[in-house]
């Protein structure tokens, strides 16, 4: 059975079996739409020594870069010890910390200058585009 058009409104609830079928059909439709929205979403770990200042700034810059290019970026700012064993699509860190994470199965991007948005764009954007499905 084809999915209803995108302008479908939720059916009103009632006790009739026909309405139950409509509600179920609408629920499945919403679940499929939600899954489609998650495509293009990238989960990033921003890593620094302590896990608050520098990593939070990096994460915010990566999220801003993603927004600018239509890629939804979610993530966490964490310290080096917490980063190991965490699931993510991408890890962003200073060059020194990135060297310590190089054995990871996740792409690791090391930044030499953490406030240089040009370096961030050159190094992180290609990975975001690849992971985001562009």
From TrEMBL:
GO terms for molecular function: protein-N(PI)-phosphohistidine-sugar phosphotransferase activity. Residues 42-132 form the PTS EIIB type-2 domain. SUPFAM superfamilies: PTS system IIB component-like. Keywords: Sugar transport, Transferase, Transport. Coiled coil: none annotated. One of its GO terms (biological process) is phosphoenolpyruvate-dependent sugar phosphotransferase system. The keyword Transport applies. It holds the Pfam family PTS_IIB. This is PTS sugar transporter subunit IIB. The lineage of its organism: Bacteria, Bacillati, Actinomycetota, Rubrobacteria, Rubrobacterales.
